[in-house]
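[09:14] KT: can someone run the structure on this one? pasting the chain below
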Amino acid sequence: FQIDTKLLSIPHFCAVYIIKGEKLALMDAGDHTTADVVLAGIRQLGFQPQDFSYIFCSHIHLDHSGAAGQLIKQMPKAQVVVHERGARHLADPSKLLASYGGLGGDPALQALVKPVPPNQITAVKGGETFSLGKDKIIQAVATPGHAPHCVGYVYSQHKGLFCGDSVGVYLAEEKVLMPVAAPGYDHELALASLKTMAALPLESLFFPHWSMHKNVKDIFSFALKQWGDWGAFAEGLFSTGKVDQIEGKLRERARQELKAIENRKSLYDYLTGELVTLSAMGYTAYYKRKTSQG
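[09:31] RB: done, structure tokens below
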């Protein structure tokens, strides 16, 4: 079951998923601004929040885990599963919020992003399994790169992978796949994680951005090319001393590659605006670290 969270009032851009077995699980929590949308979606699909046993977070960025603290209040028996490097930030979001620039000090944001009680957090590093009932197993797979706290979840029954942002933003109809290099990005790890995921015996991929797709091999081939090309493009700018041009040049590239969604103005503006700014920060920090390490 898929719920469109309508993040930023943009339809068909951000999803969370419900898996139904003997136990119920939510894949990603969604953004702190969309908790009510998720709760309403759960009820509209005939489920009750208090019946959920798990929230599996792909990583701790707000559009994926920001609502966890709000949702868990309605899910008293649920465990929030998250990478071990992100667990402490769910228990105490203050440092995570501080990393969101000027927004970090916004009292409204501080009020919305609720902590998750530590006794309702299960930290994973990859390889752990969770049973939702007969033949319904979820296995955690570490997928660092986009961020160091990324983890995917393989669902045994459908041979599906809930991949978080580790494969990028994928809009199948428009044939768009956009890598996102968040702060903490590691290019080599991102490519290695793509290869790890591509080697899994999968039949479907579940993207938060956006939807479920069956053409697994084609998507990974496209993703490896896109992540490789974007990283090389940013490295070329960095290595030739054009660090101050990285954001502008990435925006030019994004506008060119995303022409197919110009008619979806809100989404186009977000991807070529705020998301490019985020990636510029990630690429710049990564290549600075790489240079300083020799």
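[09:33] KT: thanks! Residues 273 and 281 are 13 Å apart (CA to CA).
[09:34] RB: yep, looked fine to me
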